[in-house]
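ASSEMBLY PREDICTION REQUEST
Request ID: AP-0331
Submitted by: J.K., bench scientist
Number of chains: four
Total residues: 462
Priority: normal
Notes: Please return the full assembly, not individual chains.
Input sequences:
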Amino acid sequence: MHAEQPVRTGRAKRLPRAVRERQILDAAVDVFSRLGFHASSMDEISEVAGISKPMLYAYLGSKEELFATCIRREATRMMEAIATGVEPDQPPDVQLWSGLRAFFGFVGGNRAGWQVLHRQASSQGGPFAAELADMRGRAISLVAALLVHSSDFPNVPRAGDKEAESLAAALVGAGESLADWWLDNPEEPAGVVAARLMNLVWMGFGDLVGGNVWHPPSRRAPDTPQPGAES
Amino acid sequence: MHAEQPVRTGRAKRLPRAVRERQILDAAVDVFSRLGFHASSMDEISEVAGISKPMLYAYLGSKEELFATCIRREATRMMEAIATGVEPDQPPDVQLWSGLRAFFGFVGGNRAGWQVLHRQASSQGGPFAAELADMRGRAISLVAALLVHSSDFPNVPRAGDKEAESLAAALVGAGESLADWWLDNPEEPAGVVAARLMNLVWMGFGDLVGGNVWHPPSRRAPDTPQPGAES
DNA sequence: TCCGCTACCTACTCGCAGGTAAGACTACTG
DNA sequence: CAGTAGTCTTACCTGCGAGTAGGTAGCGGA
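STATUS: Completed
Returned structure:
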């Protein structure tokens, strides 16, 4: 799970600041994800990072600043992964599908990052949750734009945008929760989890219990869920 | 939000143990929900409860035991609220609808309880998360049974149960997330939030962008979302 | 009215973890 | 070979909060 550095003795090798900072952030994400914000000690983080505590403070400031930096880094990585994965000229369901695959692919390849980003950040109050809320807001806007663009909401005359936005919030929330659930049930590959959510939000239970499933255009038989990216 | 006791001076009124324990748990849920587990001090909880710290230890044991007791109490309350709200002889969509209304009704009336139950418990590791996972497991089983009972899953020959269970997990997760989202956007009434999730999971985006919405049987016109229970 | 029990308190101990002071080692530059 | 800038360390201070020792006050029973 987390790479176990051999116990450090004596002085660490001299490295340029940028490299050290990356190492420290990696270590911090690892420790925060395993222990949570409060239970993580700066001593432990510095030990995992292979340096001594004052380096932490010299480079990353206080514990809270360090945590915020972790959150920002992981949030940025995730949004970039999604933005890279989605194909803007496709029909809406395919865009949604590729977005979901990118999202679950990222989570699968960055369990620790997702853990600290979502679970930890949301449980600490104040600026951390705000940081997270900002990222979620961007994701919601993305989905909402997709929905609004893809069709009108004929039955909700004036509130179309708000309606779309809150549906998008529900979807994003479902994705976050399913990702959390996946952390505890890691045996399934990313594509299967993504396909499940895709079916749920695109088809709905009403269709699914009737046997209608969504499937990507022209690839496989309708009844096999898309394997997709591996965990 | 939380009832502000006047600053206590001198000795508290003598009360039977059961009553004190309830007071203490109320105070603990309040403080835990606002500050989180680690940031909450036993001093603060005892102060809010209107008693002195040794009483906490005498009645509720250690801080961890106190927290676990809070979680269990809130979890039990929530499952009871849902079980009471659902009507077993109705068709599946109506059962789901009433379950969702009961759930969001509970959360709306117990913001602090939900906060500590979900956000706090899930972010602390170990036994607390396990406690929560147990409750979630029961909720998932409930929904999965509903799905399996309501119809076959024709396209997934042998894995029907597992498929249903993981869809149920996604739904429960969506509900949890939407409830969290609702904590930060509390202006909407419970019924509207419940109706949104109902539409999402029952109809799916595929229908919704086409203008098809779900509505409770024989109450209103199909195009108005159900206002439902008030916050 | 005295006993004993339960509710309740003040006033501590003590370890842990965030944060820092002050200096030592390395490498580059002239 | 100085001088300087940046890297890195040991060894400490300090406050906060979990948990406790030991004692006081009200109440019910005989």
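REVIEWER COMMENTS: The domain at 68-208 of chain A is CATH 1.10.357.10 (Tetracycline Repressor; domain 2).
SIGN-OFF: pending second reviewer
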